[in-house]
Amino acid sequence: MQLPPKVTDRAFARLAEIGAAQQGQALRVAVEGGGCSGFQYQIDLDAPAADDLVLEGQGEKVVVDAVSLPFLSDAVIDFSEELIGARFVIVNPNAASSCGCGTSFAM
């Protein structure tokens, strides 16, 4: 059974800080072929499309397209602030391995 991804309160809070919804945008999380491990995450601000899965919280939205959804089943979309910088991160239980950059993975 395919479970939808989850979004942390921290990720929604960061979207609220940058005013994504006020700009009519959502955080788009997609999976594309490529990267050093076979697949890579594409994370952008974008307008929601009619066929997107929409995850809502704190007045903000995270969207996932239908093609990417199976790759993100039961994943967690989070926001991380570390010494090296701040970024949205994906914790994906479907990834068999990932590279050091954190944006590329294999299944």
General description of the model:
- By secondary structure, the protein is mainly beta.
- The chain has one domain (6-94): HesB-like domain (Hypothetical Protein Aq_1857, Chain: A).
- The chain has 1 helix and 9 strands; from the N terminus they run E-H-E-E-E-E-E-E-E-E.
- It has one helix at 9-18; strands spanning 6-7, 26-33, 39-46, 53-57, 60-64, 76-82, 85-91, 97-98, 104-106.
- The strands form 2 sheets. A 6-stranded mixed β-sheet has the order 4-5-2-3-9-8, with helices on one face. It has a 3-stranded mixed β-sheet with strand order 1-6-7.
- Strand 8 and strand 9 (104-106) form a beta hairpin.
- The two termini are 17 Å apart.
Concise summary:
With 107 residues, the chain is mostly beta strands. The protein has one helix at 9-18, and strands at residues 6-7, 26-33, 39-46, 53-57, 60-64, 76-82, 85-91, 97-98, 104-106. The two termini are 17 Å apart.
Task: Please outline the helices and strands.
Blueprint: E1 6-7, H1 9-18, E2 26-33, E3 39-46, E4 53-57, E5 60-64, E6 76-82, E7 85-91, E8 97-98, E9 104-106
Which short descriptors sum up this protein?
mainly beta, Hypothetical Protein Aq_1857, Chain: A, six-stranded mixed beta sheet, 107 residues
